[in-house]
Design a protein that fits this description.
The protein is an alpha+beta fold. The chain is built from six helices and six strands, in the order αααααβββαβββ. A three-stranded antiparallel sheet has the order 1-2-3, covered by helices on one side. Strands 4-5-6 form a three-stranded antiparallel sheet, covered by helices on one side. The longest helix is centred in the N-terminal third of the chain and has 20 residues.
Amino acid sequence: MHFDEEAERVVDELRGRIYTALRDGDLDSESVLELACLLEEWEVSTPATQELLERPAARLTPGDVIRLGESLLRDTGFEPTFALEPRMWDELEQALQVVERDVRASGINGTLRLITQDQDNHGHAWVEFQGGYWSNHGSSIPPIAGSDVQRALACVADATQEVIVEAIWKVWPVCATHDRGLRVELIKGSAVWRCTGDGTHTVAPVGELS
């Protein structure tokens, strides 16, 4: 979706309101109908917006409102922010503590922390590494990564790896068997370090490098 700044603000506010109400179990039809009308007005038409505009509001059951509210969020690519879900930030911070064990196991010193460049905590997170004269930020981490423990570990490990490599100017971490770099992958739902040498060798779960 591409709206002007004011329209985007209104849409985001409505989607946040719907998400919070869905989470808390008190969604009513008013916000859902308002969002559907705005989307259709701005020529963003989905099966959910069409159904909401075609059916009388009085005939919408609570189940209909929930289903259509979820559809509007899904169809418009909504993802919750740290402001809406502070627990996601907490999950990423806990993941960074786990990943830091791997950094220290490699003898790398310096401060690791999770930061956001958005004062309202609506944007993405970054891993910052400060060691010696270095102060680098890795790739960004979307808030939704904090919705699952293992996904959080994988995303934070990947971002940490990037910022460490940029700082020390060499591969990190390294497989002791093959002397090749490792990459983080989700294998059967678990975040692990895999050797890039043979493509099949799992070295250790994230946080358990020796």
